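ERR on first pass: missing label on line 2. Operator R.T. fixed the label and resubmitted. Corrected input:
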Amino acid sequence: MAERHLSDEDLWASLEALGEEAGEHLAACAACRTLRREAEEGLALAAEGGAVPEPSPLYWEAFRRQVERRIAEEPAPSGWSAWRRWVSLRSLVPLGAAVALALALVPGLRGPGAPEPASSPLPAWQALPSAADDPGLDVLRGVALSGDDLDAAAGCGEVTECLSVLSDEESQEVAEVLRARLPGVQS
Amino acid sequence: MSATLASAFALQHPSLLQDAAPGPAARPVSSEESEALAACRRGEREAFDGLVERHQRDVYRLCYRYVGNHEDANDLAQEAFLKAWRGMASFRGDSAFSTWLYRIAVNTCLNFRSARRPLAAEEPSEALPDRGPSAAERLVGRERERQVRDAIARLPEKQRATLILKVYHELTHEEVARILGSTVGTVKANLFHAVANLRKLVAGTAGA
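pass 2 clean. output:
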């Protein structure tokens, strides 16, 4: 008798076809014989529990229709949509590149008399800070408070007009007035 | 134990020990099925209907053996086919379509059992063929069937799946291994444990 007992795999194999080596071991080993007998009994039991009641023939037709209906409600299988998406994206990239290259190399393809795109200026409102954050407004407000004297001196009707036409010397004078009236303002 | 005993057992239960003939999961792919598979991969839903018709009984029976009642088996079998449809693009034909489908069905059943209700065994239908000459014998037979089904339901998942696929669906060891993502050696070992545990469980039930 071999020293090692039969493995589970060997014992199952012995139920299917008893090899010479396993047969010799089983003949001499009571423990393995017991295991094999129990497995045989279990297998015989299993044969008793596998019956499945057969549904009516109409059931199978209904089953198929049901599967068909549920599939019809399904979106396209994800594998296909992913594949199609991949194909469409992959094909668009070289296509777009080819079109761009053709437009760049062949001026006639761009159309007759197509104007060069002009760089659009930045809108003024985008370049200005908000009123709350603009320290210049305080300066203008201060100027407006003392506008009577300046208006009289320059002979203009609006403060803003006066400011825009001041000479360097006049601007310097305005700055001194502002410094005197608004001590917090830096020169 | 002699070779004679094994041979006698094989004669008594010929379907249980056969390994040479391919089971339902290894049905050769006919040219019709090949065309249907190609059409399914192109997204033609009608082609899938033929595949459902061809495999619905095997898939239903597999599911029934897992859950033990018609309603759940019906739901699971439908779910298995839906999953197959959804994953059709990933089926490359490395194995038989039926093997791939069985694998989906087994996984569906395993997920169902672990995620939802416990198995609810159902009394066998009156339409089952008579198993004995007398009503008393039929009654005993049904009781034994119920005990065996309950015991199978209590087997560990791998052992249960292996037993169902090998013994009831008559697949080869290689097919079972492919379906369960296992090896032939493991399948044989699981089968041995399954039948040994089945015997103990039934004996425990009968003695209770």
